[in-house]
From TrEMBL:
UniProt GO cellular component terms: membrane
Record keywords, A-Z: ATP-binding, Cell membrane, Ion transport, Membrane, Nucleotide-binding, Potassium, Potassium transport, Transmembrane, Transmembrane helix, Transport
Lineage: unclassified sequences, metagenomes, ecological metagenomes
Keyword Membrane: yes
Organism: mine drainage metagenome
PANTHER family referenced in this protein's UniProt entry, alphabetically: POTASSIUM-TRANSPORTING ATPASE C CHAIN, POTASSIUM-TRANSPORTING ATPASE KDPC SUBUNIT
GO molecular function: ATP binding; P-type potassium transmembrane transporter activity
Name of this protein: K+-transporting ATPase, C subunit
Residues making up the signal peptide according to the UniProt record: none
Length: 125
């Protein structure tokens, strides 16, 4: 029985070493050798090129609808205007969900405003 216990512990430690350390180190080494800019996070002076996009033009695909326009700080500072109809109408958006329910008249009005906004730009489902 002691032989089986020793084999099980040895195999567990060996598996942890191979999968937990050697495989991860090999993957990191290959990534650093072949793609050093991407492997280090694609860092720029203002952050990372992989995180977020500038939605400053209506010709770009918008990842998800929100009422903040191209800058998330619009919600905090109360900036009115911009290309988004909700921001242009003085509705300062949130950077997340509004938590409005499916029967909310505000949500319905905001959604209709966004649909008209995109239809005027030639976007239709």
């Amino acid at each position: 029985m002691l032989v089986h216990l020793r084999r099980a512990i040895t195999l567990s430690l060996l598996s942890m070493l191979v999968v937990g350390f050697l495989y991860a180190a090999a993957g990191t080494g290959v990534a650093q050798a072949l793609f050093p800019f991407q492997a280090n996070g694609s860092l720029t002076a203002n952050g990372s090129t992989l995180i977020g996009q500038n939605w400053s033009s209506s010709r770009w695909f918008h990842g998800r609808p929100d009422a903040t326009g191209p800058y998330a700080t619009n919600a905090a500072t109360g900036v009115v205007g911009g290309d988004n109809p909700l921001v242009a109408n003085g509705v300062h958006g949130q950077t997340g969900a509004t938590n409005l329910g499916p029967r909310s008249r505000v949500l319905l009005a905001d959604t209709r405003a966004l649909v008209r906004y995109w239809h005027r730009r030639g976007v239709s489902p």
